[in-house]
Amino acid sequence: MGLGDDEDDDDDDEEIVRLPLPHTRGSSAAAAAAVVVIYDIIYSPSYQVPVLYIQCPTSNFSPDCLVPSAYKRQINSVGVMGALSMTEHPVTGLPVYFVHPCRTQEMMAARGQLGPEEYLMVWFGVIGAGVGLNVPVALARSMVGGGRGPAFEGQAA
Question: Is 102 considered catalytic here?
Fold first, then answer.
């Protein structure tokens, strides 16, 4: 059987699209207020670090909803305009927010020598967490040797 041979495929796709998000299940007000966020990570040859680009395609979007309350003071304290700025997406050319990479290299160097997987997990923890992008702990641990490495020092295994 090839793609499109099963007539039920189209119905299944429609049902998948209509399923509510787990955190909005049973609440039409919460579902209407849900914000879709698209994260892109692109390496910056200028800063020599990954840069996090954030796009919110909803028309009633406010950047305030990107940053969890616990991180707002830290985000605002970086640079003249804060760590969260607007720019043109380097691939699509669309206007997007991005976490400014000016101090990323310094922050990552302070963690010492990290392998590629550990580097990304630490980067997600520091840069991503500030704008609501998190990696599940189980996934992070499985990617960096079960939680045994410099990125997880001081954390329970």
Answer: yes
